[in-house]
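Dear colleagues,

As part of the handover before I leave the project, I'm documenting each prediction I ran so the next person doesn't have to rerun anything. This entry is a single chain, and its sequence is reproduced below.
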Amino acid sequence: NKGIIKNCAVDVTIDNATISRDLTAAQYTGGIAGINEESGSIINCSVFGKVSGLKYTGGITGQNKGSIVGCNNDAEVNTDVKDKKIKLREIKERDGLKKLVSANKVYASENTGGIAGTNDGYIIDCNNTGSVGTKDNGYNVGGIAGRSNGYISGCNNMGRVRGSNNIGGVAGQLEPCISISYGKDILEKPREDIDE
């Protein structure tokens, strides 16, 4: 989305978590948009049903770089993504190496949020009431954003949030972005003071 999406409601099941050799189809999954670009705005939209993906999955958008305002998510987000585990008793001598190698392919979800999987923009006055994540699976799982270094204000999460690492009611992982700009080189100021 690079434009404006306003006053819409979606009641559908979106499932991009089909595991295949090519996992690129399982990224950037959202009930309204996969990616909301810097110029994009999603306003007063609601999502119901179920949204599933592996990376960057959100009830409204998988990745937010723009603004999301006044949106509501009641959909379940990544509530049935399974971790591919292998038990020792399942390994037979004949095919043991093959099973051990396939066990390295862990399909844990990452960056899962009730509103946005990852937020680099603005999320304002949004609500999540849907369940987010599954027990013991996934990291960076949050009721509003799975991972955020953007701005979140006036949002509420009333849904259940579960995962295995970096789990939060609002944001699973908050990465503050600090930018410092100097009008002059740091060394120029003391030199000017000495010259005076």
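The chain has a mean pLDDT of 79. The CA atoms of residues 149 and 175 lie 5 Å apart.

All the best with the project,
I.
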